[in-house]
Amino acid sequence: MAAEAWQIVLVTPGRKITSELLPLVSSELPSARVIELQGYPLDGKLGDAVKPGSICFLDLITDQDRGLEALTNIGKISPHVPVVSLVTDSNPQLILQAHRLGAKDFLTQPFTTDQLRTVIEKLSHLIPELVEEHGRVITVIPAKGGCGASTISFNLAMQLKKSGSAKTLLADLDPVTGTQTFQMKLKPGFSFIDIISQGAALDADVWRGVVQSYSGIDVLLSPQNPVEGAQEMGDTRPILNFSRRLYDNVVVDLGNAYGEWALSAVRASDEVFLVTTTELPALQAAQRVMNYYENHNIARQGIHLIINRFNRDVGLTKEMIETALQTEIYQIVASDYEGVQRALLDGKPIQASTNIGKQIQQIAERILGVDAEKQKKKAEKSNSGGGLSGLFGLFSRST
Q: CATH says 136-398 is which class?
């Protein structure tokens, strides 16, 4: 059972605890079913609310004594249901007492998203039957506008489908300049804004009414008009968590590297690709993006660098770029202006027989583990100064 299919049983005699906890649950587990039991089940019976995958959040704040009595009896009647005690942050003795009576974990008031994430992760490890395999999220980000990240996203989704991903979604989550509608020649219709507005009511039927189909993949489009206040947009995880249930692979075209909208997608992703070109402004922008993520506790090693429109006869070499950015290049994608423009005009993927098509296919195969047996060799970093010193100075000044 996927985490998004968990059933939350909230035991509390009042609405105060409910109003504090439910928004967090809706954000982290948007498809979870929430059942409220008002009052304490002193006989330990949770009734018809209990099923495999249920988690009980038990209020020990409103009435400590009755809450502990209920906890004792829940452990006797429904030992398979993990109980998370809700306590105040100033009562460590109560936390210990609840643990001795069988509580698996606890949340302290005021409840926070980070607390809830930690509890979900812990329960997933303690009780493996709560989780199952779910889809992979692959986020593609441009170092700056015009680097070709949307083209990479579109063609990567198509190559994943071709390479064995039975259910594939391309999600254009760019709230300002989403281009997949144009790129795929689709008619504007519903967008991810319609998904967000559903909140806890989102289900598979609603989802099918919003996404469009294109050559065997599903496409979640961006809104036709730019979203006002896009920089203040919230969390992508309700969309990504739900889509994991339906698809083997979800390719996210993010459009922009900065802000909470982007950070939430990067943190929720299994693979993150940063697309840049060999022009110095684009490479400087890539360095800034990686520094920004490091400052937000996202490791540089988790960002896969794609060099797009690479021409070995013009500009910096692969080794120079790796040394300057202090990271290994994951994939080089060749420059083919005419081939890309022809595909855009036709509303079709880049031909698989081209160099670009083959290189994007290599990315898809690595994601799917097709070439997992192949040993990657790290390029030897050049320690020479000379012609590179000015380049290093440029990047150091930009950080």
A: alpha beta
